[in-house]
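Running log. JK asked me to keep both predictions on one page so they can be read side by side. First protein, sequence followed by its tokens:
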Amino acid sequence: MKTGILLTNLGTPDAPTTPALKRYLKQFLSDDRVIQAPNKLVWWLALNVVILNI
């Protein structure tokens, strides 16, 4: 079996600022195709309380 690597561009923040980066991360990490969390409430809390407030 051959192994391959797929490179994709998933976008970038609108600007090199903290608010733009937080908006981008919130949208990107809220996508079910990117993060498949078994418990959506726990993931939402982790994203909004911990990750986006660092």
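And the second, directly underneath as requested:
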Amino acid sequence: KSLVSQITGVEEIKHDMCLNTCIGFTAPFASLDHCPECTEPRYDQEVFEATGAKVPRRQFSTIPVGQQLQAIHRSPEGAVDLRQA
């Protein structure tokens, strides 16, 4: 875990994405193995053929807003600051 997640409890969520950044493999694209826009494979084919492991070629991170708000409200100062904003 990163220091930020240890202190705040806020953790990033990693999602696979197209190597060419056409799409993120989320929601309607979550089950696809190739990009519907450019047909690039989602997973590293060399690794898959050698080991059978599905290693994404590219990923992006998101940080859920709910966890951020919970982290701010954990301290009295954070809660007051949020109310004054």
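Observation for JK regarding the second prediction: The longest helix spans residues 65-73.
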